[in-house]
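Case study B.
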Amino acid sequence: MSDSSLHERSYRMLVRLYPRGFRRDYGDELVQFFRDDLRARGATGAWGRALSDLLVSVPVQHVEVAVIHRSSSRTLAMLGLPLIAAAAAMAFGRLVVLTVPLAVAFAIGAYVSSRRAYNEAVSSASARWWRVLGAGVLLLAGIAAADGYGPDLEWFPWFAAVFVWLVAWGLVGTGTLLAVVHLFRSLRARPASSL
Amino acid sequence: MARAQLPSASLHVLVALLDGEKHGYAVMREVEALSDGAVRMGAGTLYGTIKRLLGDGLIEEVDGAGDDDGDDERRRYYRLTAAGERAAAAELARLRMLLRRAQRLRPGFAGGAG
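Model:
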């Protein structure tokens, strides 16, 4: 396999992090863009642009899908409260310790208070928990890399940095939430299918 | 009703298409040239912007005439619609007016005649 096709295949795998609709409409264009960039700027330049772009545009596209294509209650269930949980975790300064329990606590509350709406909201999304979680982890890794080894980002507005940070933890919280739900659904489905 | 102001990325893409249809990568190159490299777009950001502009009817997809670099891969080309031209003109006029007002507040600001 040539170097360029290896790069292209690797990038094509990362394109799977985008929401399905966006991938269906623009997946080939994204890969074509990467291929052009690879030719024009070489592997280092192309990957530098691609990774920094993925860190921002993957969460943005998922947020757009959540906001535009779901009802307000679903948006709240899928996105809003995990973000609040992340904000609360930041306020208390115990990020890892608080974010996941708060997201799980919300999952239980949402399940109890609006069981039907919640089930609808997660039914199609829970099986894709790994994408959401992966996007969050990727974003956090990018933030950590930019913070530790990246260029001077003083020009970057603080509110944008906070937003990116919240989105990252929101995705991690949502991904974890979906993973838990997916696990419960799998466990509940198993006895029924064995009958 | 007045249109809400265009996001910076959208305005750059519209301006990049003023001289005719382009495919995505050519749009990105044009945006970089227009901004002296200050605006850098990756594929996801660019196509996210293109998706919104298509949805708003400000650009449209056209059949490409083929690539000048001999690449036989099929690409999608985009061009401005009449609404897109109006939106770009309105946004640039708004920015021009803002600059004039800023220079009235502080003569000589941003290269204005002091």
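Chain A touches chain B through 22 residues (CB under 8 Å). The remaining cases will be described in the next quarterly update.
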